Each structure stands twice: as structure tokens, then as C-alpha cells.
Amino acid sequence: MIIEYSRITQIQGDIISVIASGVQYSELAVVKSHMKTSLAQVIRLRGDEVFLQVFAGTRGVATGDQVRFLGHPMQVPFGDALLGRIFNGSGYPIDGGPELKVLPRLEINGPSVNPVMRVIPRGFIETRVPMIDMFNPLVESQKLPIFAAAGEPYNELLARIGICADADIVILGGIGLKHDEYLKFRRAFEESGISSRTIMFVHTASDPVVERLLVPDLALAVAEQFGVKGKRVLVLLTDMTAFADAMKEIAISMDQVPSNLGYPGSLYSDLASRYEKAVDFEGAGSITILAVTTMPGDDVTHPVPDNTGYITEGQFYLKKGVIEPFGSLSRLKQLVIGKVTRQDHGHIMNSMIRLFAKGREVEQKLAMGFERTADDERYLRYGKLFYERFMDLKVNMGLDEALDLGWYTLAECFRPDEVGIKQELIDKHWPRA
Amino acid sequence: MTSTMDSRIVAVNGPLVTVETVKAQEVMMNEVAYVLCNDVFLKSEIIRIRGRLVDMQVFENTVGLKVGDRVDFTGSLLSASLGPGILGQIYDGLQNPLSKLENDQGYFLRRGQYISSLNEDRRWEFTPSVKPGDTVRAGYYLGSVPEGIFEHHILTPLALQGAWEVVDINQQGAYTVTDRIATLKNREGVEVPIKMAQQWPVKLPVRAYKERLLPDRQLLTQCRLIDIFFPLAEGGTACIPGPFGAGKTVLQQIVSRYAEADIVIIVACGERAGEVVETIRELPLLEDPRTGKSLMDRTVIICNTSSMPVAAREASIYTGVTLGEYYRQIGLKVLLLADSTSRWAQALRESSARLEEIPGEEAFPAYLESRIAALYERAGVVRLYDDSTGSLTLIGNVSPAGGNFEEPVTQNTLKVVSAFYGLSRTRSDRRRYPAIDPLISWSLYLKQMKESLCERHPEWVSWVEETQNLFIQGNEIHQMMLVVGEEGVGIDDFVTYLKSEMVDVVCLQQDSYDAVDRATGRDRQISDFTLLIRMVHHRFDFETKGEARQEMTHLQNLFFQMKYCLFQGVEYMKYRTEIESILRKE
Questions:
Q1: What is the pTM (predicted TM-score) of this model?
Q2: What is the pLDDT of residue B181?
Q3: B10 lies within 8 A of chain A by CB
Q4: pLDDT in tens, B356-377
């Protein structure tokens, strides 16, 4: 039953309202104006008033324009034919290829996975970035954001991990992406030869704001289906702060009471319902999510990174071009450290970080002009070696190699009784002079 | 199918729907109603009534609802099912058993599926404890069934008012929770059939006991920082606020496994599904050292993870507390861990915003404070009608925005709890776990339980206070050294600083991934802390700071190695003897 209405009573921001009946909550509609045709989604019903958010924006929408309800919520085509393709935020191909009309369609925003059907993550994903592999390893089915200020090389890091990581399918969700960045991702995937197993959903900064909201849902709905079919999927999302900002815009247009810096009170749930799609299915595939969250003003207490931090299983801080050892955390690391990886991994990791923290304290002390003791020298030397050998993003090395280098570096700077490691491990791994 | 006699939806706004009731319809605040959406009934709860317009929060996704859809009211409040068979279950926020849903639905949780919370086919071996003619009141025991290692008393329905006479009671035998096991009659001659399963509205506290007692016995968590410095009482309340990544989750997992409670209820409220999965998968494999049975046998998990519907999140904590109160009525020591109460408060905020109520601080509703207070007040230790005691201890995790404790949920929680374990980013960044900051945390139970704590050692409480002062001093000296350098402080102060560092490293810090160190029992706590306090009291005689640092590092390493050794094992005794010989020197 398709009904057309042509009486738009209100236009505010990207939201329109029409008088209609029999409309379902969340249903999709087509708004046809003389400039363009756009999809729209029902976001509120009040009596016979229906509120819709118009994906392509309301510029040029006239009160007499036609609104046609489609009787179903937002859907996305699904099938192997998606591989290697690029779509926009409404799910239309933008790579010049054919439309995928014959494929079955999935509803986005499906129900959540029964926690009982999840398994404990246990797959270690080696990235060859020592600050990740050694100190905060990425685990299959984990959801991890990269917190970065504007200007940090987060998209390069994301692309590098996308290329190196061992996944069956890589899905990129670009939200408010600069056009240059989009081209860079595209080129990086093509040059590394992985584009045949990638799918890109790209919303660039010049596209209508409402389309931003759909990108994570489209990417994750497709990832979920591949996951159920046994594929190990890596989803890369950049930038989730742009997603949250779009949500803020819609909420304000709907006169919602903002909770913090204008963001709606539901920000946590809205972000969580996306990130929680990361899953390891019992007896099938998995979804791992790596997302960029830019921090406005480099402030981690900003509502978007803050809420994200509570949802995700850890976070990487990208600061001054390196992954910060403090604050960066992979909550799932204990599931693989010493179990999938070498037995000494956990101990050497903790010890190295503890000593590096001490080194930072010494640096601060010296910066204030205090006398330098022989002890201080050793910590400074250690700090310098640590930076060069592990933190520098140029370093490209496997985990076992990094662990050996860790023992070697400790032995260069400290005595065994200073590092706080169990005696049996010292006996086994401490490099003999 | 529909008629003009039905109540109907007039507006949909996310999970909030507004219903226009038919004229004769009587509705009740917090009453459960079902919304019919394309042949599926969606459970919902009334949260506001204005004339014939009723606002309800739907506990499910509302996609596909239409204006004009039918609504059925049930006439009952949102309730939990209470009876034998709750232990070991994994429920969603509305007490649907998730493992049953799994069998029926595969990977995903389809909406509109409600399954009875208790297994209605299982037979329980019932032994009556009353006889016809006896008088009972709500909460009196009628008999018992064995549930795991516990004697599960069958309660006179908690909702019954006044005195009731037992008309008949079943013989010993096997019955299901829905079988009639007794009949009661009141003075007016009204007869009610009694089953083992009963319902109780989750938002009302259970008060069927003689009196509430002052919590004065310790609940051991086996986390040294808590047990020694900021002890928790049976029937007490505590909150654990902390920024993300500071280790709330790991701390909670450790407490849920090793705390010496009879029953542990874990409410995963708006948190990651992954955490629940770890608990679900690992608990059944872990052995409860006190019973030899699986830890899952003493655990109930209620999970409304962050991607599950928001409206059910608010209910999930109440469901958990209600189950806790029920087992307290049976005379057990119950520990409830709620992670996190901030998500629960946010759920309140979301529904308040949709109701367009005037917001308070940070858009939280004005009734936030009273709701939090009422929740924590449901904890407590009580004397039951048979003079035994039962307790419900409540630990709530708080996730303050930006890690800033000045926000409304943390502040309102601090007002009502008696122990505060503040996690600090500084400590977690330095890998000092558990990252509870000893300088800001407090527990009123240290004084309240003085008598029972001093059973450990007559000086125990004063030792603890002395050590707490040592942390403060150590921190002051540390701050001073940051400004004036190591050379700027005297050797005595320097040694004090090293002592406080040592206590931090070997006692406060606990490795939750080490098989020995992750849990420290009472005896070991007493033994190790008694040795450690000797170190604190010891007057070391060092010539130079270099010597002090070297000797103290050596001593610290001995304590450190000792904590990884099995209590009173050969290795342990070796380190202990060495430490004692150092402390004997003048």
C-alpha cells in the first residue's frame, strides 16, 4: 500500500512534517522536489503528524512537494557482489558500477545479539605496530577507537592496519571524510591489492549531514551478515565524532533537551548500539571495529570521546604522531597475552611501562632544574631507547621480535631486581651478559 | 481484530508511546501493558497518566508501530518471579532467561519474546515446615526445597497482608513451581492457593522481616585494598566510581568471584556484552573453594547490555535488587554488583527528556537523587522471623562523565553509600591495580565494624589508620620531592616515602591475573599485614639515601616475590624468614 502525500506542514533543519495516517515508526519515504529526490525516515509520530528526517537535506524542499511512504525501514543490498564496491551514505554506488537491484536486502539497525550466543574473544590480530601488538594487542571482535586531535595521522594508521591485519573482509565507513582522505584510502587499498575484499561506504564532508547517520549502520549491517556467514570482518569507521555531531544537529532540530555541550542524552546508547555490533559469533565469523574519534580541543573529557571510552574495549591515543603508552588500553589483551602470545608477554609489558612512567617522572624532575643522579641517567637512557625502538610509528616489527628487544632493552638499562618481574621469568629470559 | 473498544496509540517518539485509553479503562502507574505491533506484543510500562492520555515506555524497539495500534493493559505492576530455580540463570532486564531465548531464536534477540523466568517443568523436593492450623504472615517459611547447596525456604507470599491460617499443606514430595502446595485463609475467610513461585513488583522494597540491623560484620572480598583499608560490611553499600579504563570491570569480576557471599547477583546494566560473556563462559568452569561446586551455582546474571533497549535498562537494576531481597528473606548473604548505575541514571534521563520534564543538573531529572537513595536503601542486614539473619550488600559502579566525580550521579551516590572506592586515572596509568586511590577513598565501616575487625588483632584498626596516614605522608613527601628534589628532603622523610611506596607495591597492588595474588583470604591478610606493619614500625638506620634506596628496594623485592607464592608454602616461608631476619636487625 503506497500512499502519496503532498502537504508538508513544517520544515525545520533537515526535518519535515506531513499530515498522514497509517505510517509506521522508522518507515522510509521518498521526498520528491523539483531540484532532487531524497530518502527520508520517520522519526516521530504525533497524532496524524509524521516527522521525517530528509537524508539529502531540506534545501529546496517546498511545502507542496510529494512525500511517498515505502512501507519498510532503511535497507541495504547484501551479497558477495558488494566486495570491491563503493557506496554513499544512502547506499547508492558511487564508483560508477551498476546498481545492485537484484540482491536481497537487509534491514539496518537489526536486533542485538543474544549475549549467550557470543564467545569469549581469543584471536590475536597482529598489526606489526609494537605499541599495539606488544602493549595493547588488538583482539578479534574487539571494538577500539583511536582518539586523536585534528591533524594527527589517524587515517594513515587506520589504512595501514586495514591492510596489514588478518581479516577476510575489510569494510570502511567514512563519515564526514574529506574528499582527499577518501581518495587516499581508495588508493591505499588498491595499491596494496586488498580492494577485492573491501567494501566502502563513504560520506564526504560535502554530502548532506543526515546521510552521515546512516554510514555506520549500513557498514555494520553488511558486516553482521558476512559475520553470520562465517567471515572475519574488520570494520574501520572514521570519524565517529562527525557521526555524533550529526546526531546533535538532528536532536536540536527536534527540540530535544540537550544533556552536555548540546549532545542528546541518548548519545551513549546511540554510540553503543553501533559499537556493540562487534561480536564473535559462536560457530560463525566475527566483527572487529576500529574507529577514529577525533577529540575537539584534544580534550578526552569531551562528551564524544568520553562516552566512547566507556563503550569500547579500550582506546588508543594518537599524540604527536605516536601511540601514547599511557591511557592507551586494550581491555581484551588479557585474553590473548600469555595465552595466544608468549608467556613472558604480560610481565615484560607491565614492567616496561612501569619503568617508562618512572622515566617520565625523572624527565619532569630534571626539567625543573634538579640535580641529575646516576639513577636518573639510566631512566633517561631507557626512555630514549623505548621511544626509538617501540613508539616510533615507522617501526614495523612482529610481536616476538618486539618481546626479545624488550628484554634486551631492560637488561641494557637495569638490574634484574629492579624490574619487578617474577624470578622464574628473569631466570629464563634475562639476557646473559 | 480491532474494535473501537480498545485503547490505541496516538503518538510514537522513540521508545515512548502515548496511548489514548477508552473511557472505562482504569490504569495504574507503572502498570504493564502490551502494544500490538504487526502480531507481536511488545511489553511496556506506564510512566505517566494525564486524563485519558497515558505515556508508556516500551521495553523493545518500536520500529513499525503505527498511530491507531492496539494496547492491552494487564492490571499488574512490573514484577519479578521469585522461587527456586533462579540461581545460575542468565536473565535479561525483564527476567527472561537468555539461554532459553537462545534455543528459540539463534543469534539475535527478536522482540516480543517473553519466556517464564522459572523452569515450570522441573520438580523440586519439597519438605513442609508448617502444619494446618498454624498462623503465618508474609515472609514466614512454609517449607523448603534444596537448591544447589542451599536450603531454599518457600515463603508465604510477600504480597499477603495480615495473619493467615494454614488450611492445608502438601506432604513431602516433588512439585513444580506452579503446583499448589498449600492453601491459606485469613480472618475474613478468604482462601488463597499457594505455589512455590510468587510475584513481587520490582520497584517496591520487600519488608517482610522483624527488624533491620546495623551492619557490623565484614564481607570479605579477598581484595586486600578493600578488606584491609576500606572494609565492606555485610548488608552495606559501596560505590566504585572511576573514569573509563581505570579497571572497574576487572575489579568487579574479581569481587564477584572471590567475595565470601552465599549468592552473587551481577547486574550488567548498559555495559558491554563482552564483559557479560566472559562471566557467562568462565564462571561455570571456576570452582567455588568453599563448596567445591561451580561458581555459577551461586550466581545470577541480569544483563541489559548497552545495545539492548534502553527502557528495560531502568528495570534491570530493580529486577536484580528484588532477586537479592528474595534470597535475603531465605536467610542468605547476598552480594549485588550493579555495573553501572550511571547507565541506569542515563536511562532515567532519556525517558525524562522524552516526557519533556523540566531537567535538573546535566539534564538529569530532578528525582534522580531520591531514586538513587531509594535504590541503595534496599540493601541491609535484617533479622528474619525465625531470628536468623540475611543480608543484601550492594556495590554500584559509577561511570562519571570525563572521570569527574563532581557530576550528579557520583555526588548523589556518595551521599547514600557508606564506602567509597574511587578509582584514579593516575594510578591506572602507572599500572597500579586495583586503581583505587587510597588518598580519596573511605569506608565508614572501619569504625562501625571495629569490634569484629579487632578479632583479627587487637591493634588492627589502629594499624590500618596508621598506614593510611603513612600514605598521606608518603604522598606529601613525594610531592615535595617533585618540587625540591630528592636532595631537598631529609633521610627520615625519604625512608617514610620508601615505606609508603613499599606498602603500595606489596599490599595495595594486587595482580588480578595471577593465580595466587588475585585473591587473598582472611588468614593470609592477617599474617602478611602483621609482617608488613613490622616493616612500617621498624627504625631503619641508613647512612645515605643511596643506601636507603638499595636496602629498601631489596626488602621490597622480597615482599613482592612472597606475595606470588602459595601461602605458607616452602617458597613463601623462605622469603618470610629472610624478611624477618632483616627486620630483627637494629
A1: 0.90
A2: 96
A3: yes
A4: 888 888 889 999 999 999 999 9
Q: Each residue of A290-349: pLDDT tens digit?
A: 999 999 999 988 999 999 998 999 999 999 999 999 888 898 998 899 999 999 999 999
Alpha-carbon torsion (A270, B404, B341, A275), positive or negative: positive
What's the start-to-end Cα distance of chain B, in Å? 93
User: How far out from the chain centre does Cα B280 lie?
Assistant: 16
Give B276-332 pLDDT, tens digit per residue.
888 888 888 888 877 888 999 999 999 998 888 888 999 999 999 999 999 999 999
Mark the ranges of chain B whose per-residue pLDDT is less than 50. 1-2
Element (DSSP H or E) covering residue B557: helix B545-563
Chain A residue closest in CA terms to B354: A256
Element (H, E) at A251: helix A240-253
User: Would you give the distance in Å from CA A241 to the centre of its chain?
Assistant: 10
User: CA angle, corner A118, sides to B402 and B272, nearest 5?
Assistant: 10
Scanning B521-560 for CB atoms below 8 A from A yields: 549, 553-554, 557, 560
For A21, which residue in chain B has the nearest alpha carbon?
B67
Strand partners, A330: A314
Question: What is the model's pLDDT at position B2?
Answer: 45
Among A18, A25, A295, A324, the strongest candidate for a mutation testing the B interface, having the largest count of B CBs within 10 A, is: A25
| Side-chain-side CA neighbours of residue A309 (13 Å) | 31
CB neighbours of residue A100 within 10 Å: 19
- Per residue, the 3-state secondary structure of B240-308, as one string, reads EECCCCCCHHHHHHHHHHHCCCCEEEEEEECCCHHHHHHHHHHHHHCECCCCCCEHHHHEEEEEECCCC
Region of residue A297 (phi > 0: left; psi between -120 and 50: alpha; otherwise: beta): left
Residue B373: CB atoms within 10 Å: 14
Instruction: For residue B27, give the C-alpha cell.
Output: 490504569
pLDDT at B279 (0 to 100): 84
Residues of A113-133 as b/e, b for ≥16 C-beta within 10 angstroms?
bbbbbbbbbebbbbbbbbbbb
Q: Do B306 and A276 touch (CB under 8 A)?
A: yes
Within 10 A of A163 (CB to CB), how many other CB atoms are there?
16
